[in-house]
Design goal:
This protein has 13 helices and 21 strands. By secondary structure, it is α+β, with helices and mostly antiparallel strands. Strands 20-19-17-18-16-15-21 form a seven-stranded antiparallel sheet. Helix 3 packs across helix 6. The longest helix has about 50 residues. The relative contact order is 0.06.
Length: about 600
């Protein structure tokens, strides 16, 4: 997921095509780590740069940003010097994670001057540097001889012994530890260097070449059909040749600007991004292609922020539900063990009856009595308390029977209640996993409060009584449409499920649900004529995908007309019953269906 030199090359290729010849219209600095250049070149482009240590980035953005009331010093300096400066070049040295934007502008005397904004995207060492050409600098850089005017972050010798980044100092790029240039390396040189390494091949690749990341190295191994964990010295000549040819292929694509940006997702979680298709990722991951690297980066990091925010917001709910499920599972296990013990009750009843009938045969002090069991016709030995009479022993067995019978009846009811509560809690956990907005989390929390799993916190002004607002469902089920025009709705939590099944759906609509497991209610709105078989399959896929059985790949789905679905009085939200249904086995691979264009998500 880290930004590598390959992705930076894709960024430079895109912004160079759009920005060359453009003029700066506005410069903003929302915070200490972020710089935004508005550049007009026919259209106006917003170049977003950030040196956040976790995700240093540069791309063309369409987002809006809140700026401080008073501009920061670095921003004021850039405005003073660059005003309406024109972009004349954008440079990336090799595959370094460094980009220099070269500007021309007129100074106070009307003379043409050159300046550079250089962004270094190197994790915690990231920086944005403002520099100018200088004959006094004694170190040649890919941008020519430069002198630092200022930078967002000042780096003194106390911080770094490699170089100072301070006004007046010479600018240079730190050495890349003798790494190879993938554009110019020969096959023989590559073979020599690789065989000299004692590391696994995937690790060696990003250690050998400038700009390669672990992700890109793994992709090279995958496309070369070479196991990434093989030690370099064990590679055959054929394997080395395949790896080299794969590198040559990528370098050719990069040189021609032929990028194919892609994002990898695991459910809603953004996992990776790359300037090229990541063939090393298959199921259960989803891959989404993008037309531009900027669109990819913007979408990836916005998704990442949203996903992280949702994870934080759901953490407390998940913990409460997990603890309750764990508690109920333990309780159910204990109840079932106690229920197992009550199976002796009928035996004690028989003992009591037989002692009442044949107890006269027992003698005082006997520890047992052998009588004929008239229920089976076989002889049976009944243990006795030698200090009690036969009738007293019979009463003792009757009492045991009565006690176990009461226990059985109570536990039979309690186990059902506990199983229903576990089922309800699991359905809430599925709802949490499916939640896509804060409003849906509010609804899930409301369900937990109304079910007694959480306490409501009421805010009140001192001296006034606390008032509880009436709950109103604001979110709506997801809406899909098939390529032949059938509307399919999917509930994302139990309140949505109830609304979908009993308010949105008509009696003649088709209703789908994963068999005997928590999941979404799915409704297909009918039109004239019979529902095509493929629509049944698509609705089944949605019901499988939005259920707790998603990871199984294949899920059994119950389906029937909505009029056959009933809600028992006093039942938990989302709980329904039905007594006659059809079944189908559906794939949970929704991504494949979406890629084929058989379904379109209209509202989420």
């Amino acid at each position: 997921m880290a930004l590598d030199g390959i992705t930076v090359k894709a960024i430079v290729t895109e912004i160079k095509d759009k920005l060359l010849g453009g003029r700066i219209m506005k410069i903003n600095q929302p915070d200490d780590n972020t710089l935004i250049l508005n550049i007009k070149n026919y259209d106006t482009y917003k170049v977003f740069m950030t040196i956040n240590a976790q995700s240093p980035l540069m791309y063309i953005s369409n987002d809006t940003y809140e700026n401080p009331k008073q501009a920061l010093n670095f921003c004021m300096l850039l405005r003073k010097h660059l005003g309406s400066g024109r972009v004349v070049d954008i440079i990336q040295p090799g595959l370094e994670r460094v980009v220099g934007i070269k500007f021309e502008h007129l100074d106070d005397m009307g003379d043409l001057c050159t300046k550079f904004i250089i962004i270094e995207m190197m994790g915690k060492y990231s920086n944005i540097i403002f520099a100018k050409p200088s004959d006094e600098a004694d170190k040649e850089s890919p941008f020519g001889r430069l002198q630092i005017i200022d930078s967002i972050k000042h780096v003194s010798m106390l911080v770094s012994s490699v170089r100072e980044v301070l006004p007046g100092r010479s600018y240079f790029i730190p050495e890349t530890q003798d790494k190879l240039d993938a554009f110019t390396v020969t096959a023989e040189r590559f073979r020599t260097v690789v065989l000299a390494h004692k590391e696994p091949v995937h690790k060696a690749l990003y250690m050998i070449f400038t700009g390669f990341s672990p992700l890109f190295a793994n992709e090279i191994c995958f496309r070369s059909s070479v196991a990434p964990d093989i030690v370099c010295s064990s590679l055959s000549d054929d394997e080395i040749s395949r790896i080299y040819q794969t590198i040559v292929y990528f370098m050719t694509e990069i040189s021609s600007g032929s990028f194919s940006p892609v994002m990898v997702l695991e459910g809603r979680k953004p996992v990776q991004f790359s300037a090229f298709d990541l063939k090393c990722y298959g199921e259960p991951y989803e891959k989404r292609a993008y037309e531009s690297i900027s669109t990819l980066l913007s979408d990836f990091y916005s998704r990442k922020v949203a996903f992280s925010a949702m994870q934080q917001k759901t953490a407390d709910l998940r913990k409460v539900i997990s603890n309750l499920i764990e508690r109920d599972v333990k309780k159910l296990d204990l109840q079932q063990k106690q229920l197992l013990d009550t199976e002796k009750r009928d035996k004690y009843k028989v003992y009591g009856e037989l002692l009442t009938a044949f107890g006269y045969e027992a003698k005082g002090g006997d520890k047992s009595i052998k009588v004929n069991n008239y229920y089976t016709g076989e002889d049976i030995t009944i243990p006795l308390d030698k200090d009690l009479t036969a009738i007293e022993n019979a009463k003792k067995y009757y009492d045991k029977y009565a006690k176990l019978k009461r226990t059985y009846e109570a536990l039979s009811k309690l186990t059902v209640e506990t199983e229903e509560e576990i089922e309800h809690l699991n359905s809430i956990m599925v709802s949490i996993n499916l939640a896509a907005s804060e409003q849906e989390l509010v609804e899930i929390k409301e369900e937990m409060i109304q079910s007694g799993y959480m306490k409501r916190r009421l805010k009140n002004v001192k001296g006034t009584p606390k008032k509880e607002k009436k709950f109103q469902l604001k979110s709506k089920p997801m809406h899909y449409v098939t390529n032949d025009g059938y509307d399919i709705y999917v509930g994302r939590n139990n309140y949505q499920n109830d609304m979908l099944t009993f308010q949105i759906a008509d009696g003649g609509d088709w209703w789908f649900h994963a068999k005997k497991m928590p999941g979404s209610h799915v409704v297909v709105k009918v039109k004239e004529g019979e529902l095509p078989d493929r629509v049944f399959e698509l609705a089944g896929t949605l019901a499988a995908h939005y259920s707790s059985g998603k990871e199984q790949g294949k899920v059994e789905i119950d389906y029937l007309k909505r009029k056959g679905v009933k809600k028992p009085a006093g039942a938990n939200p989302g709980f329904v019953v039905y007594y006659s249904n059809y079944s189908l086995i559906a794939s949970s691979d929704l991504d494949l269906v979406m890629e084929k264009g058989e379904l379109t998500l209209l509202s989420e």
